[in-house]
Amino acid sequence: SNPLHREVHQDMEQPLCHYFIASSHNTYLSGDQLLSQSRAEMYARVLQAGCRCVEVDCWDGPDGEPMVHHGYTLTSKILFRDVAETINKYAFIKNEFPVILSIENHCSIQQQKKIAQYLKEIFGDKLDLSSVSTGDPRQLPSPLDLKGKILVKV
């Protein structure tokens, strides 16, 4: 493997929407989307492989704890908190460019508040809470501006 391929040589100062972003669908699944196991470690694997956008399907769980799983299937369930902690641990090991959490939200307001609490507690200053109010995509920050940041897309 050529070590030069691990470095970024492109201009990373353009608005975020100017880039192709390596994304993962059903990131939490270790196999097929009907019967397989949901595992927090899958986030560690894809983030270290260079993925910068991961999917988190959130559903109401027992005891007020939001769960991550593929809805209406027989896939196993994992705690949202465990997923967030895994992402926090592995997000920036291989590179510093932003990680986008693509959250598919099926939770009640009560458990959505719990998700927001975990996002703030676990990611701390890494969580980008700035909002982009303009409809002009040229005003979006660049990957360079967002180094080390976790973005939430719902």
UniProtKB/TrEMBL annotation:
Catalytic activity: a 1,2-diacyl-sn-glycero-3-phospho-(1D-myo-inositol-4,5-bisphosphate) + H2O = 1D-myo-inositol 1,4,5-trisphosphate + a 1,2-diacyl-sn-glycerol + H(+)
GO BP, sorted A to Z: lipid catabolic process; phosphatidylinositol metabolic process; phosphatidylinositol-mediated signaling; release of sequestered calcium ion into cytosol
UniProt EC number: 3.1.4.11
Molecular function terms from GO: phosphatidylinositol-4,5-bisphosphate phospholipase C activity
Protein name per Swiss-Prot or TrEMBL: Phosphoinositide phospholipase C
UniProt keywords, alphabetically: Hydrolase, Lipid degradation, Lipid metabolism
Manganese found in the keyword field: no
GO cellular component, one term: cytoplasm
InterPro entries per UniProt: PI-PLC_fam, PLC-like_Pdiesterase_TIM-brl, PLipase_C_PInositol-sp_X_dom
Record domain Phosphatidylinositol-specific phospholipase C X: where: 10-154
Domain of life the protein comes from: Eukaryota
